[in-house]
Design brief:
Thiol Ester Dehydrase, Chain A, six-stranded antiparallel beta sheet, three-stranded mixed beta sheet, binds dodecyl-COA
């Protein structure tokens, strides 16, 4: 695939970095992401007084200033090196540098894709339960990933139909997605989200291998 074929919005950054250096960089940033995520949760649940809130805000502004002395613009995009590694650490579902992303952890399985996560206070919708929008994101991402692995290229959600079966309580949850059928560039993917209460939501989605990523004979 050449740069000319990629749409203008597809930000791609090529970096001269080895796999070892990338692992070191990941080890540097992931703890920061986890701490920012924890900060969000603590801010929701904190009951400290106004002086403590003012002091915390000072520290947060100081941290922002330090991090802001050197920043990229726009979005993180897709970074690649010449060994074929690709990393999209800004991704809203799994990005290593994205504290907004739920802490989804991909677990290798033979049949499709499995993600595990422990959802805390920052993901609440109905009191004590996971917000339906986050449920949609998890089902979407896990399904997209399953299609991506099978299609060996970027697959986009065309249609996603979700059935919310019962409230998804905050706490540990597991998503399992698998490709049910594939026809040319189109994948029908099913996904379930489960907690200790059983399956709480399920989806069926049509995912399409992007036109600009298809080999000529696949179009
Ligand atoms: C390290 C990295 C890891 C990365 C791992 C990342 C996983 C991330 C997963 C997240 C997924 C997202 O959120 S993606 C973001 C949300 N989605 C989007 O923004 C998509 C916006 N829509 C589009 O870009 C487009 O409409 C597409 C790509 C969906 C389809 O356009 P197209 O490529 O021109 O499709 P086309 O050739 O005409 O059709 C191919 C086949 O798909 C069918 N089809 C076309 N559109 C749809 C549709 N909306 N719903 C159902 N089916 C459709 C057609 O009928 C046809 O079926 P037939 O005739 O062959 O039977």
């Amino acid at each position: 695939m050449s740069n000319e074929q990629r749409p203008v919005w597809h930000k791609r950054v090529t970096e001269a970095i080895s796999a070892d250096e990338l692992a070191e960089r990941e080890a540097l940033w992931v703890p920061l992401t986890e701490e920012v995520r924890e900060l969000v949760s603590t801010a929701i649940l904190s009951e400290v007084d106004e002086h403590a809130v003012a002091l915390a805000r000072q520290h947060i502004r100081a941290a922002q200033e330090i991090l802001g002395t050197k920043v990229d613009t726009g979005s993180f995009g897709m970074h690649v090196n010449d060994e074929g590694l690709a990393w999209n650490w800004g991704n809203a579902a799994t990005g290593q540098k994205n504290a907004v992303a739920p802490p989804l952890c991909q677990v290798p399985i033979a049949d499709g894709v499995r993600y595990e996560a422990d959802f805390g206070a920052g993901y609440e919708g109905p009191p004590g339960c996971l917000h339906g929008g986050w449920i949609a994101l998890i089902l979407d991402h896990a399904s997209g990933r399953a299609a991506h692995l099978e299609g060996n290229g970027p697959t986009f959600t065309g249609t996603l139909t979700i059935r919310y079966l019962q409230p998804t309580r905050l706490g540990p949850a597991v998503a399992h997605a698998w490709v049910e059928t594939r026809t040319a560039n189109k994948f029908v993917v099913r996904c379930t989200l489960s907690t200790e209460d059983g399956v709480t939501a399920e989806s069926e989605g049509v995912f399409v291998l992007a036109r600009w990523a298809r080999k000529p004979q696949e179009d």
